[in-house]
Amino acid sequence: xxxxxxxxxxxxxxxxxxxxxxxxxxxxxxxxxxxxxxxxxxxxxxxxxxxxxxxxxxxxxxxxxxxxxxxxxxxxxxxxxxxxxxxxxxxxxxxxxxxxxxxxxxxxxxxxxxxxxxxxxxxxxxxxxxxxxxxxxxxxxxxxxxxxxxxxxxxxxxxxxxxxxxxxxxxxxxxxxxxxxxxxxxxxxxxxxxxxxxxxxxxxxxxxxxxxxxxxxxxxxxxxxxxxxxxxxxxxxxxxxxxxxxxxxxxxxxxxxxxxxx
Length: 262
What we know:
Elements: E1 9-14, E2 17-22, H1 33-45, E3 53-57, E4 62-64, H2 77-97, E5 102-106, E6 109-111, H3 113-120, E7 123-127, E8 131-133, H4 147-155, H5 157-166, H6 172-178, E9 183-185, H7 190-202, H8 206-218, H9 224-238, H10 242-253
Parallel strand pairs: 2-3, 3-5, 4-6, 5-7, 6-8, 7-9
Antiparallel strand pairs: 1-2
Helix pairs in contact: 1-2, 3-4, 4-5, 8-9
């Protein structure tokens, strides 16, 4: 349900924009088991055709400081880590497969799993009070949450290895330069800009925009023949949408199209 209530997120749904603000029951907006389950539920909600844009952001000056490390000290740590990563990864797969554009609003520390979620978005807005940090080496762990998938794709393999080896904080301006973020904005202008971007995306042809993001992401894992075949399939399928028909009508009539996200 788009209007469901959660323990770790405060959500709003307005004008096609589903916004999920992290309010974790763990300190520093840390990821916990319930939060991963709720993120999966939110990802499933994106299949509702009324949703035209998804925004994930933090609260109280923190985006997400990674997993709740206080829960990692059990004797069955390997089993618990496998379970936790699997829950998170189910959510990531659903987010990756959605045909709704995803915006990440990084308004504070994005570390560990928060780093993964922070760089995942199709559009990543970073406040000038934010920073990104791979984080996992700090507890002797490897990356999860698709961090090792997206990081070399957005920053390049050489920079990805530097970021993970040195485990240094990356400020918002450097994050933009490296491709971790799309743009940075002053903290006191962050929410206004986040809403502006989300509103603009939500006014567009949702299916076409979402499928284009998928094509771009998956292009790095395909040869040209497979990519062109995927482009053929997507453009043919998208031609069945009402937004495509509206776009063609509007072009012929010399007016601005009024897309409905269908």
